[in-house]
Amino acid sequence: MTARVGVVRFPGTNCELDVQYAVEQLGGRAELLWHGDDSTKGVDAIVVPGGFAHGDYLRTGAIARFSPVMHAVGDFSRTGGPVVGICNGFQVLCEARLLPGALQKNAGLKFLCETVALRVETTSTALTSEARVGDVLRIPINHFEGNYSCDERTLAELRAEERVVVRYVDNPNGSLDDIAGICNATGNVVGLMPHPERASDALLGSSDGLVLLKSLLAAATSRATMLV
Fold first, then answer.
1. Single pTM value for the model
2. Where in 37-188 does DSSP place strands (E)?
3. Residues with a known catalytic role
4. Most CB atoms closer than 10 Å: which of 24, 135, 166, 226?
């Protein structure tokens, strides 16, 4: 069974085709979902990719959260559907309250475009089931507002419930507790700032993102099989 992964496209999204290519190279089927769609069209997993949704006007992700497709994504996630937000997609998921906290401007107010080392902290999520705790992955970042922030109570919950999915080995942006990605309480919704789709081929400099994308496809396949 070929897993179907929906990739959300907002005006200003610029990484949707990268995600589509990476998914299809792994044997999945990627389908673009327009922000004005009011359904997820029966896909088995969803990626909210990077870019600049609605030009990042007002506040990053603040306009995108009201798009009809995000209501459908929320419904999909509440039924256990795997949802991954990458970079701008992580920001959108936080604005949509599918994940806690917020992404602020990087420490030093500098745009960052570089490859960083990430440490896998849990394998109990839709994005890390094929990895091992302690794995260090080389994944690119490309952001100005990637500095994760939350209140003390939320941070305590994230730690206690093992919901910090990946951490920076050398924190590039001032993110609280070196957080590079988090998940919801059930592990089916994950957001991270680094771009695994840009580390899906050794010709790109790293193929370390493959283990994350394979995990997503495994979660999608499992859901597709369960719903048959």
1. 0.96
2. 45-48, 83-86, 102-104, 112-120, 136-143, 147-149, 164-168, 179-183
3. 87, 195, 197
4. 166
